[in-house]
Amino acid sequence: MSAQTKERAFEAHVEDVLLRQGGWQAGANAEWDVERALFPAPVFRFLETTQPKLWDEMRKLHAAGLENLLVAALVKELDLKGTLHILRHGFKFYGKIFRLAYFKPAHGLNDEVLALYARNQITVTRQVLCHPGKHDTVDLLFAVNGLPVATCELKNPGTGQSWRHAARQYQNDRDPRAPLFGFKTRALVHFAADPDEVHMATRLRGAATHFLPFNRGSQPGDVQCGAGNPQHPSGYRTGYFWEEVLQRDSFLDILGHFMFVEKKEEKVDDGKGGQRHVIREALIESADFSLRQRLDRGSGEDRQGRRPAGGVTTRMHGCRRNCTGRAAAPGNGPCHCRGH
User: Please, which pLDDT band fits residue 289 given cuts at 50, 70 and 90?
Assistant: First the structure.
C-alpha cells in the first residue's frame, strides 16, 4: 500500500465515522465556490426550507436574481461580521434578517425550536479546493448549512508523517489571505491530526501559525495526565475527537454557545519612541473535551450564559485544565501534557 493510499484510508475512516455515527452528511465538491469560500446551493436550500415565507417574499421581489443578490449580501456580511456572528444572528437582506443556523436554547425547548434545529445540515467534504486559481486542497472541510466552519489536514504515521507535518502544511502551504482561511470570516478553526493526536489553530499566520493541543492526555483526569491520548476502542487514539467532539449535537453546541472572539488592547512601540494602542483578537473555544459529559452531570456550564468552571479555554483543553490549575498552586511543578 502506497503512502498516499494509507493516508487516504485514514481520511476515509474519519469520514465514515462522521457519516455513520456523527450525524454528518457528505458535502459535494461541485457545490463549493472557492472564490467566495462557501457552498451557495446548501445556503439557499436551508433558507428556503426553514424560512419559506421570507424566501417567497424575496423571490417575488427579486425574481431570478434572488440567489445572486443573496450570496453577495451574505459574503459582505461574513467579511464584515464573521462566521460566528452570522451563524448565531443571521444576516441582513433588504431590511429583513435571514437566519443561517438554529441552536438549542438554554431553556424553553418546544417542538418548533426542535424542528428548526433538526433542519441544520452539517457536512464534511473531502479534498476541497482552498486557494482560488490553484489546485491545492484541504483533506476535510466541515460546514454548517453551507458555511465553512473548520478545516482539517490528516496525516498517518504509516506514511512517515504525523500531525506536525499537517501543522507545517498549514504554516508553509496555506495562504492566510485565501478566503477560506480568513480569520473569523470563514473557517473558524484548523485541525492538524493523525491517529494519535489532534492540534488546532484559529488563525493562520504563515510560519508564525501556532498550534495548540486538543488532546485528552494519556491519563485523563489525573493531576499529571501525560501527553497525547489514551487508547480508544476505535483503534485510533483520536477516536474521541471524531466520535464525541465532532458528534452533531456536541459540535453545534460548541458553535452555538461556547466559542467567542476575545479582544485585547495592547501597547506597542510606534517606532518613534512612543507607544500606540492596538486591538488584538483571538477566537476562543471555552469548552474542553468533557464538556458534554460535564453538562449532562450538571457539574459544568449550564448553558445560561456562564462559561465552564475556571473559564476553560482551548489553551487549557481537556486534562490541561487540571494541570493548569495544579501548576498555579504554590509548590506544584509544571504541566507535562502538552505533547510538544
Answer: very low
User: Where are the chain's structural domains?
Assistant: 3-53+118-241
> Is this structure's pTM higher than 0.85?
no
Asked whether 212 and 199 are in contact (CB, 8 A), the reply is: yes
239's enclosing H/E stretch is helix 239-240
114 three-class SS: helix
**Separation CA 166–CA 71 (nearest Å):** 32
Grid cell 498549514 is found at 170
Angle at alpha carbon of residue 166, lines to 161 and 170, rounded to 5°: 150
Find, among 136, 135, 139, 143, the residue nearest to 126 by Cα: 139
Interior/surface letters 290-322, b for 16+ CB within 10 angstroms, e for the rest: bbbebbeeeebbebeeebbeeebbbebbbbbbb
**Per-residue model confidence as pLDDT tens digits over 167-212:** 999 999 999 999 999 999 999 999 999 999 999 999 999 999 999 9
Q: Which residue has the cell 425547548?
A: 109
User: Can you tell me whether residue 268 is helix, strand or coil?
Assistant: strand
What residues are paired with 192 via a beta bridge?
A: 153, 199
